Amino acid sequence: MREQILVLEALQQIDLELSELEIHLKEYPNKISNLEEEIKSSKETIQNLTNQKEDLVKIRTEIENEISQNEESIKKSEEKLFEIKTHKEYQALQKEIAETKRMNSDHEEKLLDEMEKIEKLENEISEKSEKLASMESGNQEKIAEYKLELEEIKVAYEPKKKQKEEAIQRLDPEIFPLYEKILKKNNGEVLAIAKNEVCTGCYMNVPAQLFNEILTFTRIIQCPSCQKILYCEEEEKSEAQTG
């Protein structure tokens, strides 16, 4: 039975290692995805700001064109003033010139407003682009590390599963189902050392008669409290025999 305990110890260690590998197999892809999503989200934000800027630039260009057209219209109207014969026509043209200048004044105010918005967006785009460059560099480095570690885990995983299968083959058929049952109940801990009539897994007392059976390794014995499989270390067995 001592040999079976040794196999259980090895199997428990293999399962702990497999469990850790499986956690990373799920964890690393999520970490990689989160880092990639962070880069993508930042790029989308910058693109949205760039699109806003382009829309404002179009508006600015339209206003500039209107101002230019109005200035050309004013120039032509002012030239026509010298050709007008009647006072009434002169006043009408003067009024038209004044209205066009007023419109241009409004356009110029709007143009300044749009230019301020564009400048603000350009500063924001520049700031976010600098942060993106720094963040993307760091994230890509982490992604590369995670991908490398993930490949190493995948390489280690299958041989570890094979080790588990080989260990199971060395167990008595009736022991493995018990092992699995305890494994699920105790989060990966199946075995516990019995020392001085105490289970070191739950620190509850083990009846003296049961403890003596543990010392002999005659059968698989579970802790009455936590249900873990109990065994003793050689020094404990030697002390009991000399005692």
Describe the structure in your own words:
The chain is mainly α and 243 residues long. It has two domains: 22-169, Helix Hairpins (Orthogonal Bundle); 175-242, no CATH class. The chain has helices at residues 2-80, 87-169, 175-185, 208-216, 234-242; strands spanning 191-195, 198-199, 221-222, 229-231. The chain has a four-stranded mixed β-sheet. Helix 1 (2-80) packs antiparallel against helix 2. The protein is rod-shaped. Mean pLDDT is 92; it is low at 238-243.
Largest sheet geometry:
4 strands, mixed
CATH class of the largest domain: Mainly Alpha
Helix content: over 70%
Order of helices and strands: HHHEEHEEH
In total, the number of strands is 4
Give the strand line-up of the largest sheet.
Answer: 2-1-4-3
Domain module count: 2
Strand % is under 5%
Q: Strand pairing plus helix content: what structural class?
A: mainly alpha
CATH topology of the largest domain: Helix Hairpins
Overall average pLDDT: 92
Name of the CATH architecture of the largest domain: Orthogonal Bundle
Show unreliable segments: 238-243
Name its key features.
disordered C terminus, mainly alpha, single chain, rod-shaped, 5 helices, 243 residues, 4-stranded mixed sheet
